[in-house]
Amino acid sequence: MAFTLLGGLPALAQQTVAPLANSRPGTAETLEEISVSATGVPTPVSQTGSSVTVLTAETLEQQQRRTVPDALQQVPGLNVVQTGGPGGQSSVFIRGANSNHTKVLIDGIDASDPSNPNGSFDFAHLLTDDLSRIEVLRGPQSGLYGADAIGGVVSFTTKRGEGPMRITTRVEGGSYGTFNQSGRISGSQDGFDYSVSVAHFRAAATPVTPLDLVPPRGPRRPNYYDNETISAKLGYQVTDEFRINSITRFSNATLRFNTDDYSQFPAVLFGTVRNEQGNQQIYTRNEAEWTPIAGFHNVFAINYSNLFNRNASDIYNPLALIPNTNTGERLRYEYRGDYLLSPGNLILFGAQRDEERLFNSDPNPFGTGDLKARNGNTAGYVEAQLTPFDRAALVANLRHDENDAFGPATTFRVAPSYVLPFSETRIKGSIGTGFKTPTLYQLYVNIPSFGQIANPNLKPEESFGYDAGFEQPLGDRVLVGATYFHNDYKNLIQTLFLPGFQYSYENIGKAESYGAEAFASVKFTDTLSGRIDYTNTVTKDEVSNLELLRRPRHKGSATALWSPLPGLTLSGTLVVIGPFVDGNRDFSIPRLKNPGFTTVNFAVNYDINESVSVFGRVDNLFDRRYENPTGFLGQGLAVYGGVRVSTF
User: Fold this and answer.
1) Rounded to two decimals, what is the model's pTM?
2) Residue 51 pLDDT > 50, yes or no?
3) DSSP output for 98-114
4) Which pLDDT belongs to residue 2?
5) Which domains does the chain show, CATH number per domain?
6) What's the CA gap between 103 and 446, in Å, rounded?
7) For residues 471 and 39, what is the distance between their CA atoms, to the nearest angstrom?
């Protein structure tokens, strides 16, 4: 069906992540795709055995993806689950791993929230306006990245200023009360480069409650979401050998949403409660780069993040509970060096010290009161990137962590790649281990009024995984490939219920996932290209022998890019999610079958001249009704449009 769609509807467009689709319309040569996350330094994808997908700023703009959850929908081997529309809690499952098994980095800063009970990252509040690339690295990656990288890594890189000063502004409006604005000023001069971005995203009326869950004669209040994000990336080349960089990112988001009113029974029939969540995030990184001799590069960096959440329930009730707050804080000192031994042979090494803190406050009667906890971790790692012989590449890393709470953890990853002569078939693979530390909440937070007992003896969750695959060019315009993967997870932390209406956390879970990813990328003409991806994922809880929740066995996507005229670009994306097991909205039914869904998005961009562009898009073109997760309605047909103005 996807091939027919690509061939019969040339107006559909293709993502630039696809091999053979990276070149601009009208050029005959394809640029080599580069990944930074796969090795830690810029490396051609063809020289690593890791499975990585790269979404560039050009791709995001062509498809007009304004939020990260929307952008990630098309990535193979990955499932995005969002509770309703923009701002709703957004989780990512990579190759069947849990949502808290994904390492998330923003310009090298660990973006996780230490105050989160299970350590999962919420992608909901990340906008794409200031991003230059998104990289999704699949498979265990703790050998380089340490804790949390059990399932994979999602790395975000923001834009850097270059060339003469340029100012870009964008205004966009459309369905669901959407009104977005963004602006950016960037450039470089006399060794100083700068990029400052401001973005405002608002979706004032997004319906997220399915009609069958709306109480009789009750209001169907839509979600309200507002996000303001400011980011700045500054750099100064002091000398030929020495450079300093500073990165700051701040976001302020507000989400108003409904939950079921459990004070009445049954909740679905009698009412809902209007809640508000305030979210403020600060990420900073200050670093110095020193290259004392050619080929020897050093980075010294200090990272800091502060994530504040304010949760207010029943906001229209003057007798409602007092809002509670959660704050997670992280500080990292980091050194990283890389030395080029010879062309194609490089050694990378580094050390890190992390401090994380939790500050939670619930001042209500019978609430949790004030909670505080802290933990630290010291780590060192080394990686070799080698070209043992012609057409072969090998990346291998080893890392050792010493955690203040549970002690040592040693992890590794090996990823070879080889291109066969004559057929040009690239054979690739990887094998590695991963771990995830217990959260501060699980280790240290006791809540007697709720029966929660902390467990300071928890051990890290662990994974072992491998994959193997190939990529085969068919002429100059077609590339196909497939990868098989397998992952085992043990010591998974789960809730253990105790006598006396108490519970704690224990390392009692085991699971496995395996499957395959396949793709076909085609450059039909110099102006029309397309790509198809398919992922098959099988998961099993090895304790209960049941399929894991919210992991669809089948996922497919088709993307295309067409530039029929100079300045005119059309793009389209088809995403197919197969059936999956889920619970209902309040999990009173713990297992049911969600039928899955199919969506089609279409976007058009037209450059009127060098300074002015107009654009528009249609999301969910055929207005398919679906729930992902169950009990939360996905967005229906939506139309957006706007204008972009730039100066040179």
Assistant:
1) 0.93
2) yes
3) -GGGEEEEETTEE---T
4) 36
5) 2-647 (2.40.170.20)
6) 27
7) 20
Q: Is the dihedral of CA 74, 80, 84, 88 positive or negative?
A: negative
- Do residues 549 and 581 make contact, with C-beta atoms less than 8 angstroms apart? yes
Start-end of H helices in 68-174: 68-72, 142-145
CA angle 30, 36, 39 (to 5 degrees): 115
> Angle at CA 68, nearest 5°, toward 67 and 72?
125
Nearest to 83 by CA among 612, 575, 581, 550: 550
- Report how far residue 139's alpha carbon sits from residue 153's, in angstroms, rounded to the nearest whole number: 8
> Please, is 560 exposed, middle or buried when counting C-beta atoms within 10 Å of its C-beta (0-12, 13-18, 19+)?
buried
Report the candidate in 397, 373, 369, 371 with the shortest Cα–Cα distance to residue 383.
Answer: 397
Residue of 345, 341, 375 lying closest to 358 (CA atoms) = 375
Half-sphere exposure of 119 (CA within 13 A, CB side): 27
The residues that bridge with 79 in the sheet, in sequence order, are 93
How far lies 357's CA from each of 103, 251, 378, 498, in Å?
A: 18, 20, 15, 28
Angstrom CA distances, 228 to 177, 249, 312, 644, stand at 16, 11, 20, 19
Cβ atoms of 210 and 629 within 8 Å: the answer is no
Averaged pLDDT score across all residues of the chain: 91
**Residue 544 pLDDT exceeds 60:** yes
Cα angle 435-124-532, degrees, rounded to a multiple of 5? 80
Q: Which positions ≥6 away from 495 have C-beta within 8 Å? A: 503, 504, 505
Instruction: For residue 401, give both structure tokens.
Output: 């962590």
Is residue 628 within a helix (H) or strand (E), and if so which, with residue range? none
Angstrom distance (rounded) from CA 233 to CA 255: 28
Distance CA 343, CA 539 (A): 42
- Residue 196: in which H helix or E strand, if any? strand 192-206
CA distance linking residue 571 with residue 76, whole number of Å: 18
pLDDT of 125 above 60: yes
Q: What's the pLDDT score for residue 17? A: 39
Q: How confident is the model at residue 218 (pLDDT cuts 50, 70, 90)?
A: low
The structure tokens listed for 530 are 């397309």
**In the chain, what are the helix, strand and coil shares in percent, each to the nearest 5?**
5, 60, 35
* Secondary structure of 415-428 in HEC code, one letter for each residue: EEEEECCCCCCEEE
Neighbouring C-beta atoms of residue 395, cutoff 10 Å: 26
Q: What percent of the chain has pLDDT over 90?
A: 84
Q: Phi/psi of residue 3, each to 5°? A: -60, -40
